[in-house]
Known about the structure:
Helix content is 38%, strand content 24%. It is of the alpha/beta class. The strands form four sheets. Strands 7-6-8-11-12 form a five-stranded parallel beta sheet, with helices on both faces. Strands 3-5-4 form a three-stranded antiparallel beta sheet. Strand 11, helix 8 and strand 12 (206-210) form a beta-alpha-beta unit. The mean pLDDT is 85.
Amino acid sequence: MTRTWNDSGKPVTERSEEKNALTDADLVRPLLGKYELAEIDAALRWLKLGAYISRTQWGLRGPWVHVLTEKGVEVATAGRFPDDERRLFYLEDPHQVFLAHQFRPEDADLEHSIRGALELSGYSVVDGKVEGLEQFRHTILAKIKKSRFFLCLLTHRSKLEKGGYVSSVWLYQEVGAAIAMGKSPLLLVEGGMDSHYAGELQKTYEYIPFTRERFSEALPEVCRRFDVDLERHAILLPVRPEPGGG
């Protein structure tokens, strides 16, 4: 950085060097193509409060730069924040999936397969298993809000006279709750669902059709879509369990 001023009518130029530093323009402008300015400002504020960056200024009017502190250099070198710090800057768990499904023996194998596939990819899974209506209103909504992803297993519940199937009304309510919270539901839709009950959802939200005989073939696509979302938003992918690990 250079700073020039007049000293008794003579121009004086001072040069200074700061390691691990960037001007405000050099730091912010490259990020504007991917993030809103308010998001960048909020992130910088968070980093300052966490003592990851500081500000070095020359003179009363500058120039000045953002500088990584020793703590910030350690994080940059490691490539990730400590887990206890990461919990402070996520209002939702970036690797948690809320799984909406029917609690029926007929779907138990499907649920188990979904959990296994997601957990092998490093995701944690929660669902709406609670007791009582009051618990539904509070506990389930809190789980949905905390989860970055909402996955709905839309399976047959009862058959209509005209031949198609409908699913549980609770699943439609949970989808509606997720939408109200700004989530983007991903639906796993069993073949044969009546178009009036499943078709409208499929037109609006991402969905993956499946049959029970070939259900496992749909699961890699679920994990892939979640990974793509994280990468698109510059969020680290979950840590994958070691093969054969407990």
